[in-house]
Design a protein that fits this description.
The complex is a heterodimer of chains A (846) and B (553).
Chain A: E1 22-23, H1 29-52, H2 54-80, E2 89-99, E3 102-110, H3 112-135, H4 142-161, H5 165-183, H6 190-224, H7 242-246, H8 253-259, E4 262-263, E5 266-267, H9 274-282, H10 288-293, E6 296-297, E7 300-301, H11 302-317, H12 326-329, H13 335-344, H14 349-356, H15 358-361, H16 365-386, H17 392-413, H18 416-443, H19 456-459, H20 461-475, H21 481-494, E8 500-501, E9 504-505, H22 509-536, H23 547-552, H24 556-562, H25 567-570, H26 585-592, H27 599-612, H28 616-626, H29 637-652, H30 660-663, H31 668-673, H32 679-682, H33 692-717, H34 724-731, H35 733-740, H36 745-819, H37 824-845
Chain B: H1 8-33, H2 37-65, E1 74-82, E2 87-93, H3 95-114, H4 122-128, H5 152-171, H6 175-196, H7 201-228, H8 248-256, H9 271-286, H10 295-302, H11 305-315, H12 317-330, H13 332-358, H14 363-384, H15 387-418, H16 429-432, H17 434-447, H18 454-466, H19 471-478, H20 480-496, H21 512-530, H22 533-548
Helix pairs in contact in B: 1-2, 1-5, 2-3, 2-5, 3-5, 3-11, 3-15, 3-21, 3-22, 5-6, 6-7, 7-9, 7-10, 8-12, 9-12, 10-14, 11-15, 13-14, 13-19, 13-20, 14-15, 14-18, 15-17, 15-18, 15-21, 15-22, 17-20, 17-21, 18-21
The chains are: A mainly alpha (846), B mainly alpha (553).
């Protein structure tokens, strides 16, 4: 069947059918290779590194990546040659679990969307692995780094290739783990270790939402197929069909499959499988969509609730307000990690998830409204923080948060392909920027403060040019890819009239988001060019060391502390000082390398190995670090090559998104993604139609915004000559301080969440120890007291009675002795008395 | 073959007892033949390893022989024991107990390994207090001798007795036999904590003993009550029992026909409800369920490492197992009546204990409370009485039974070296003990429910199973995913990351004894993370059968 053309407007879209599945048996190889690479380096990496040098370590890791990429290309080739509506490869390994309605397969699927993601992850991932060879050359725990990196790729591939929610969640958490391990890679620094912990726990808040949304969805589907009250569900509180959820005693996958109800051959009911979910929602005949849309729970549309809860998960992983706080701290990790995980791939998982579930989100304008609104708020909020940061990686971190906001605007307003496209373009230009910053940091001997850079274009031409190209891309000039994705997102936002908040139609929201987005885009251009000018133009300030400015800065301590590779943090380890980067070696060489623990010796040893079979880049690196604090230098070719390739990618990917306005055809990527994004046909809303002239105008506005930001940054920061920034700073000291300190959000969290939670925990702990356990001890004490009492009674009462009887008998006997006198008269008197008493008694009784 | 379906469970149960008997004989020989102490100690260790290893072999064989497609009781060994009271020796297994038999065999063996004093290097052995000092007794307050070198034959006898008690409890299908095994566990446990334990061992041992005994008394009353309200049933030899029966399977059948609904009420309360509550409290103490949980942290903190391993790995499972074996099939109506309360207690266990963990300063206490929290998932899942819920609850028993022993072994590793467990006093251990750190990370992440490791699947199934029935409770308990992550990561942060505390410089990393006990569990935790169906496939049918007879109110 033919897919409805995107240009079709109105409700007459052609009905969609089931996804045609092509079962293949090699998809599992894609995640397998990185897993094997990670396992080898984790288990025997330290030994290999000691025996054969560092080369063997990165060869294993990079080979694994190349193999994965090759298989991904093979899959791409196959998928490319299928008709558009049959582009769905599936590969099931085994049944993970089955119990009743819950059945989960370890299965992978590639549709155009996950294919794109897989290529990005393996492709850019490979490049960043190669970059790391040079960047991490001096790291003693080299094997550990590459093991973690491969582990990350494995988890990320599970995330994007997962055929169901469970496998996706495996990856979702797996990338969280890898991220934790890599942020805290230099764990001997408590700040870095803390950053890792923060990332993981903040993400857990998101995971809570993700799980809750997933459970709600699973539950909602349980009732969706059974007609209740003989017809459609009315607009009342939802009562799912209990029998579906509760009693379906399947013990194996086959049984579950056989028990699943079907409508016109389409499996309906609760499922974790994306394809089954898509089929039953998309195909009108099942009635699932109808019921979901009209279903309310606790007075809220169930789809809105599901969407918002799932989006909470995305907020965590993709660093949106208010859960973004972990991402800037995550810069504590090595820079290639920042590029790969905290810019190009992992943080886009939330965007990917929303895009994957496009057909669900599209059914709930309320959920869409929230996604878009949070995205827009994050975009401008993070951009504003980016204005005043001095740490080059922090600038890029906030920029990433901001750009992720743009992606959520895209997938929020329903422009799924545009959001996804921005994900792709961002992956290229942000990876270029991050790796460029890594190259700068390495070249400046682990300096991250832009105030101590400047004039680097002279020393690092390749880094400079690639960084500049990426700046052009992110700022949004039409010569690079960023323009195309950002423009499309903002245009679609403007033409959205369908968004809702709290179930109330808000046609103004789309244009408002557009305005926010344009402002944020202007800011983006400003802070990116600011970073460019501060870093690459003017005079090199690295040697003079700008201490005066440090002293002026009221928050210099913060900057220094958070500066990820800053020497001030590590300089105290003198042993390996000569190696610059390895100055932290003694501390973390341990987990790291060898159980021998002769870390300093080891650092030398490792270096010796490399020198032994040195390649060009090793030489470069060694050379670079030989003279600490000297002039900056360009990075080894492995690094610059990657920069060039990524910059080229940032250019070439623009051809995937040439707007319809220019070419009169759907952009290539939109066309490619179409089969994976049935939302457009499922939804009841459409984007507002605007005349072509207006479209041209919007593109003009986009370019204008970029220009304004660029010109402003150029005027203020080029060559570091202008005094205006300093004066402005002095003039608006208060506002500057607030923004510089990131609006004190971290402090707010510490005050409002962290401390109360810990206090509460301590209080409960004391309660448990004193009250609950106290009760137990009290019962014990009561028992003991009762025992003593009992013993006392026994001793004084019971035994006392016995003794008393004995005493009495004895005493009476003693007294009686006096009676026994031996005189007969006394006895006779006694007898007489006795007889009298008897007679008297006898008389009285009768 | 030597092990056949008719006797495999009995072998699994009585191999350890035979081992204990052998050690007693060895002791007798020692006095007659005046054998050196070392020979006797090593002999006792060897016999214990052998006996417990054979028990594991029998347990695995039973697992292989078990046919998961058949829902009935299998591998039975059945004969009349005391005819006058209709008491039989009746062991057998369904899907529920076979998983516990496997777990019990495995954890018993691991605990036996962990009781060995193998240590690499004289200095390290000295450090752990495993070396016999020529001067003095060596067991003074400042340098307590390691439990593994104190009164070894006695320890091994107790350990083996305990193992017989545990295995017997899981396979017994006669109420009286069950009670006998249940009580058999109690005494060795008391001595193992009370003699080989830490500084407050007497307090902890007596607390454990009395607490559990109080529960047992209630249980015994309920068992007698159920017995006297039962109808006659066929005995193993084909004769009809005189009046009543102890046969659990038969009691379940009678219950399905409404046998106990007409029993005379006691003090105006329906018999089924009263019996349910009495049994439930007995089992709830073992789970341990809030507010009956406080014996657990004390027992764990004072118990030697292998005993903690058994306590967390096997003994805690008996609470849930008992409820599923007795309350659910024999008192189905009362179970439906109590389901809501069970769910509430489950949620309290999960969230309350998680918060208490966050406030702990002692690592072993933290892990003890995390057990309390995790057992709450089982309560919640089984209260929901959905297939996913109850399968998740039992899978949780198994996975927690793999993970928590790892955690306690891990505590033992550091305690053997540092002789304290205070989280704040450590720091930067990752630099000095990389292998230890890696295995600790695996265990902590498994316990906090990281997908890909065993803990997650059970939690996930409990959530999906409980959500349709107890929506609000499920959401509340799902917040535990945050708190759990927080307390584990915070503990890792304080103990392992940051700068190395110089006190711990030169500490030896894992030795082979620790590796042998930890790595198999780690491997199982990973395999079950990706293939929990290995256990689920066995338990599903039996569990679904159990809940089918319960009509929700």
């Amino acid at each position: 069947m033919e897919h409805a053309n995107l240009q079709v407007v109105g409700h007459a879209a052609e009905e969609l059918g089931r996804l045609a599945v092509h079962h293949v048996s090699y998809l599992w190889l894609i995640p397998l290779f990185p897993l094997v690479g990670a396992a080898i380096n984790a288990l025997v990496g330290w030994k290999l590194q000691r025996m054969f040098g560092k080369k063997i370590v990165h060869r294993i890791a990079v080979t694994a990546m190349l193999a994965a990429f090759a298989v991904a290309l093979r899959a791409f080739w196959q998928i490319l040659h299928l008709p558009a509506e049959e582009r769905f490869l599936q590969d099931t390994l085994w049944n993970v679990l089955t119990a009743g309605r819950v059945t989960v397969d370890l299965a992978f699927a590639l549709d155009p969307l996950s294919m794109m993601m897989t290529l990005v992850v393996t492709g850019i991932g490979t490049l960043i692995h190669v970059f790391s060879i040079g960047y991490m050359a001096d790291e003693p725990a080299y094997w550990r780094f590459f093991s973690y990196l491969n582990l990350f790729i494995f988890a990320m591939l599970l995330l994007v290739m997962g055929d169901n929610f469970a496998v996706m969640f495996f990856g979702w958490e797996g990338v969280g783990l890898a991220s934790y391990l890599l942020i805290a890679f230099w764990y001997t620094d408590p700040e870095k270790a803390k950053a890792g912990m923060k990332a993981f726990v903040a993400n857990r808040f998101g995971d809570f939402g993700f799980i809750a949304g997933l459970l709600l969805l699973f539950w909602a589907l349980g009732g969706a197929w059974t007609p209740r009250d003989g017809g459609l569900l009315r607009n009342t509180d939802y009562q799912p069909a209990a029998e579906l959820n509760a009693v379906a005693p399947a013990a194996t996958a086959a049984e579950a499959d056989a028990l699943a109800p079907r409508v016109e051959g389409v499996k309906v009911g609760p499922t974790l499988n994306f394809r089954e979910l898509r089929d039953q929602v998309v195909i009108e005949a099942t009635g699932v969509k109808e019921r979901l849309v009209h279903t309310h729970i606790w007075g809220v549309s169930i789809l809105a609730l599901i969407g918002i809860l799932l989006f909470v998960g995305a907020m965590g992983k993709s660093a949106q307000l208010p859960l973004y706080v972990w991402l800037p701290d995550a810069m504590a990790g090595p820079t290639p990690v920042s590029a790969l995980i905290h810019a190009a791939t992992m943080v886009t998982a939330g965007v990917y998830m929303v895009a994957r579930l496009n057909f669900l989100f599209a059914l709930s304008p309320s959920a869409m409204g929230w996604v878009a609104l949070i995205g827009a708020a994050t975009a401008i909020f993070a951009a504003s923080i980016g204005f005043f940061q001095y740490d080059i990686k922090k600038v890029l971190a906030y920029s990433t948060v901001s750009q992720l906001g743009f992606m959520f605007i895209g997938v929020g307003v329903g422009a799924y392909w545009a959001g996804t496209y921005h994900l792709l373009t961002h992956a290229f230009f942000k990876a270029t920027l991050f790796l460029g910053s890594g190259s700068v940091i390495l070249g400046c001997h682990h300096e991250q403060d832009m105030r101590k850079m400047g004039g680097l274009k002279k020393y690092m031409p390749i880094t400079r040019w690639t960084y500049l190209l990426a700046c052009i891309a992110i700022a949004g000039f039409p010569v690079m890819n960023g323009f195309y994705s950002k423009d499309e997102i903002l245009f679609k936002a403007f033409t959205s009239r369908h968004l809702e908040l709290f179930g109330v139609a808000t046609p103004w929201l789309g244009p408002a988001i557009f305005v926010i987005g344009i402002v944020a885009a202007t800011g983006t251009a400003f802070y990116m060019y600011r970073s460019y000018y501060m870093t690459f133009t003017g005079e090199y300030r690295g040697n003079s060391g700008h201490h005066d400015e440090h002293n002026v800065d009221p928050h210099a301590a913060v900057a220094a502390k958070s500066s990820a590779l800053s020497h001030s943090v590590h300089a105290d380890d003198g042993a390996a000082h000569a190696f610059g980067a390895t100055s932290h070696a003694p501390a973390h060489g341990a987990l790291a390398d060898t159980p021998v623990h002769a870390a300093a010796v080891h650092a030398h040893g490792a270096h010796g190995h490399d020198a032994g079979h040195a390649t060009a880049h090793d030489d470069d690196a060694a050379h670079g670090h030989g003279h600490h604090g000297g002039t900056p230098h360009e990075s080894p070719w492995t690094m610059t090559l990657v920069l060039v390739l990524l910059a080229a990618g940032s250019f070439l990917t623009l051809f995937l998104g040439i707007p319809t306005l220019w070419s009169h055809a759907a952009p290539a990527l939109e066309h490619w993604l179409e089969p994976a994004l049935p939302a457009v046909e499922v939804a009841s809303w459409r984007f507002h139609e605007v005349p072509h002239a207006l479209e041209w105008m919007f593109q003009g506005i986009g370019v204008l915004a970029a220009t304004v930001g660029w010109v402003a940054a150029r005027a203020l920061y080029k060559d570091g000559k202008s005094e205006v920034p300093a004066r402005l700073k002095a003039r608006f000291e208060g506002a500057w301080t607030v923004v510089y300190n990131k609006y004190y959000v971290d402090e707010l969290y510490a005050f409002a969440v962290l401390r109360p939670a810990v206090s509460f925990a301590r209080a409960l702990s004391r309660f448990d120890g004193t009250v609950i356990d106290g009760l137990v001890n009290f019962v014990g004490a009561v028992g003991r007291t009762l025992g003593r009492l009992d013993a006392a009674i026994d001793k004084y009462l019971v035994d006392g009675l016995v003794n008393a009887v004995a005493q009495a008998t004895w005493g009476i006997g003693r007294q009686m002795r006096h009676v026994q006198t031996g005189r007969i008269q006394t006895y006779l008197y006694g007898a007489l008395g006795g007889a009298l008493v008897v007679v008297l008694l006898n008389f009285l009784i009768s | 073959m030597f092990l056949n379906p008719g006797n495999v469970l009995s072998w699994a149960t009585f191999f350890p007892l035979a081992g204990a008997a052998a050690i007693v004989v060895l002791l007798a020989v020692r006095y007659v033949a005046n054998l050196p102490k070392k020979l006797v100690d090593d002999g006792a260790r060897l016999i214990a390893l052998l006996a417990s290893g054979l028990s594991l072999v029998a347990a695995v064989a039973a697992w292989r022989m078990y046919d998961p497609t058949d829902t009935g009781v299998q591998l039975t060994h059945h004969f009349v024991w005391i005819r006058s009271f209709n008491i039989e020796y009746f062991v057998g297994t369904d899907g529920l107990s076979i998983s516990m038999v496997l777990l019990s065999g495995l954890i018993s063996f691991v605990a036996t390994i962990a009781s060995m004093p193998w240590w690499s290097g004289a200095k390290a052995a000295e450090m752990a207090g495993m070396v016999e000092h020529d001067h003095g007794h060596g067991d003074d307050a400042h340098h307590p001798k390691h439990f593994s070198v104190r009164m070894v034959p006695g320890y091994m006898v107790m350990l083996l007795l305990l193992q017989t008690g545990m295995m017997g409890t899981f396979v017994a299908l006669d109420m009286f036999l069950f009670y006998v095994f249940w009580e058999v566990m109690l005494l060795p446990m008391y001595f193992l904590i009370g003699v080989w334990g830490g500084p407050r061992k007497e307090y902890a041992a007596i607390k454990f003993f009395l607490y559990t005994l109080a529960g047992s008394v209630l249980m015994l009353l309920a068992i007698i009550g159920i017995y006297y309200n039962s109808a006659p049933a066929m005995l193993a030899d084909g004769t009809l029992s005189s009046g009543h029966t102890f046969n659990i399977i038969e009691l379940g059948r009678q219950a399905a026909k409404g046998q106990f609904l007409n029993a005379a009420p006691i003090l105006g309360i329906a018999f089924t409800k009263l019996a349910f509550v009495a049994l439930f409290i007995g089992f709830a103490i073992k789970i341990p369920m809030f507010p009956f949980h406080t014996w657990l942290p004390d027992a764990h903190v004072e118990a030697p490492t292998p005993i903690s391993v058994i306590l967390a790995g096997v003994l805690l499972k008996m609470g849930i197992y008992g409820i599923l074996r007795f309350n659910y099939p024999i008192l189905p109506d009362a179970t439906a009546w109590a389901a809501h309360a069970m769910a509430v207690f489950g949620v309290i266990n999960i969230v309350y204990a998680a918060f208490v963990c966050l406030g702990q300063k002692d690592l072993k206490k933290l892990i003890a409370y995390s057990s309390v929290s995790h057992m709450g998932f089982s309560l919640l899942g089984m209260a929901a009485m959905t297939p996913a819920g109850i399968s998740g609850a039992v899978l949780n028993l198994f996975t927690h039974g793999i993970i928590s022993p790892m955690l306690f072994l891990i505590v033992g590793v550091i305690y053997d070296r540092a002789h304290h467990r205070e989280i704040e006093k450590f720091g930067g251990l990752a630099s000095e003990l990389p292998e230890y750190t890696a295995i600790m990370g695996l265990a902590f992440f498994a316990s906090l429910g990281l997908p890909g490791l065993a803990g997650f699947i059970a939690e996930f199934m409990v959530f999906t199973g409980a959500f349709p029935v107890f929506t609000g409770y499920t959401i509340i308990s799902a917040t535990a995913v945050i708190i759990t992550a927080a307390y584990y990561l915070w503990a890792i942060h304080r103990m392992f990351l940051g700068k190395l505390n110089p006190v711990y410089k030169g500490y030896p990393d894992l030795n082979w004894r620790e590796r042998i006990s930890l790595y198999p569990l780690a491997a199982i935790a990973i395999v079950l993370g990706f293939y929990p169906q290995a256990i689920l496939g066995v338990i599903n049918r039996s569990l679904h059968l159990i809940i089918q007879n319960i009509r929700p109110l």
